[in-house]
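**Polypeptide and fold**
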Amino acid sequence: MPDNQSILNVMGKTMKMIKLLICICVFNILTMNVSQAVDQPQTLSYLEMSDYVFNHFENSSPKWFPGRQVTQVESINNQNAYFRVYPETLIYSWVDGNIWYKHGNNEWQMSGSVNALYNSLIQVTKTKKAVLLLHGLASDEETWNDLVYDQFGFDGNCTSLSTNASLKSPNSEGVHCFRINFGSFDTVSNLKGLEGIVCHDHGGCSGDFSSYSDLGREVESAINKIRLLLGSDVEVVLLGHSRGGLSARAFLQRHGLNHSSQASGNVVALITTGTPHLGSPLGKVYNYIKDNCLPKEDHSNDNGACENDWKAADLIREISPLDLRRPSIGLLSDDSQEIKSLNNSANKLSANLEYVQITYVAEELGNLAKVNLGGVKITINPFPSVIKPIDFAVQDFSKQAEFAILGENSYEAAVELHGDGIVPAKSQRLTEVSGFNASASLFVSLDKVLHIEETSRVTDLYYALELVYGQIGW
C-alpha cells in the first residue's frame, strides 16, 4: 500500500486535471451541463480554475467556490487520502486512479476512473479556441450581428473587448467569439479629413482617423485581452472585413516571422472578406477633392465640376455609411503610401498560418448602396459613365472626377473592375499581393453582393470558418 507522501505526489501532479474532472460529480448532482465547464487550459493554477468555474456559472444556483484543503486524512477504499470540501458539503478525493465523492457524512461513492472521465472530457487538454471579428471603415462591431446571432455562427454569444463585457460562453463547437470597435487612436492621431474634420469622439471614430499601423496595434491589444481571458496558449482566428483584414495584416506583418509579439504567436489563421489588399480606385476621390475642390464653400454655387462632386459626396454620406471626407478613404486608395508600405512587407506573413480569401465579383465598381425609389430598388453609383436604370444625375461625380479615378476609358475600366462595388475582385485576393509567399484558399461568390452587405453573408462566412477549422484541427 503506498504511503501518504506517494499519494500526495500523485495528487500534486494531477490536481489540475482532478479539479476539472470533479465537475462531473458536481454537475451530475446539480443536473448541469459538464461540457460547458471543463475547457479551461491546464496551464492555469488550481485557484484560477476554480475561479473560472465559479465565474462561468455565476448565474447558476447553487453557487460553488474554490474548495478548502482539509488537513486530516480519511480512509477511502481502504486507502488514506486527503480530500477537499465544497459548499453543500460536497467532498471529493482521488484514490487508486478513481474519482470519489460524498455528501457530508454519507458513504464515499466512486464516480469513475480518471482515464475514463478524462477521455470523455478530452477537451480539457485542448487549447482554447477563439475567433476575433474585425470590422472595416465607417463601421463598428455590430456589423457582425448577423453572424454572431445565427445558429451557424456564435449562438448569440460574442464578447465585446471594447466595452469590458463579461466573457461569453463558446458556441456549440467550443469556439469563443470576440469583437472590437476600432478607434482607440483616432482622437490622438495627426490625421485630418477634408474640410479639416477630426475625431472628437473619445470612444473613437471607427478607426477612420488611424493609420494601418495603429489599427494593427489595436488588434494586438485585443489578442492580449483574449490571452488574459482564455490563457496564454489560446489559438486565435482573425476574421476581417474590408479594412479589418488590412488591420490584421498590419499586426501580423509588423511582428514578422519571428513573432516578436507574444500575441502574434497565438494567431493560427486569417480570413478576409471584401478586403482591399491592393487598395481601391474609389479611394482616389479623396485626393482629387483635396487637390481640386477645397474649400467647399468656394464651389457651392459655381455650377462647376466641384459643386457636382461635393453633392455626390454629400449624397453618398446620406444613403450609405461612407463619409468621403474621412482620411480612411484616402488611405484606401490603390496608390496610397499606406497600401504600398503594407504590401512591401507582405513577405513577413507566415506560411504557417492558414489563409482564406472570400471574394465577390459581380458588382460594378461604384455600386455603393441600394435605395428604395417608388417601390423600385435603385443601386447608387456615382460614376456618370455607368449605365443606370434611372437618370439619377444628382448622385454623379463630375467627368473630371471620374477621369481622375478611373482614367480615360472610364466605363470600360469600371466593367473590368467588377467586385463588390468598392473593392475590385482582384484586390480582394491576398494572393495577388507581390511578396505574399504563403498559400491561401479562395472562396468566390458569383452573387451580386455589395461591400456593405458582406458581413451579413452568414453562409459564406460559415463556410470559410468551417474550412479553416478543418485546416487547423479544430
